[in-house]
Amino acid sequence: xxxxxxxxxxxxxxxxxxxxxxxxxxxxxxxxxxxxxxxxxxxxxxxxxxxxxxxxxxxxxxxxxxxxxxxxxxxxxxxxxxxxxxxxxxxxxxxxxxxxxxxxxxxxxxxxxxxxxxxxxxxxxxxxxxxxxxxxxxxxxxxxxxxxxxxxxxxxxxxxxxx
Length: 163
Description:
Number of domains: 1
Helix content: over 70%
Largest sheet: none
Distance between the termini: 116 Å
């Protein structure tokens, strides 16, 4: 079955009501120039949207790169902190070993007096060791029998120290 609107009084009235004259078409809100202006505005807006999307993409890529760099720096910092902790532990162990060696040296050399020096103690330890180092480095200056005996006594005194 086919129905036609031509016989319907409401459709005929709506059709007549919907017809516009030429002047009415020119006076309507949507003139051709308005449509063209809107079309240009839409093109401009689309261009701006495209530029913003491109800019956003570049910014997102820069952020991802920056986050990657930050992550790498944080990992490096963590590794450095772990390495520093290991070094500190090694330094502590070396300090304890040095302290033990100093005490052993002080005990071994307590009865040996170097010329122009007080007996070895914690207070004059560095000066005492410097004098010993000088004596052994410049043995030719200490060739007299008294100094030879002193050097031999020192050798005997420190012979048992385990390094």
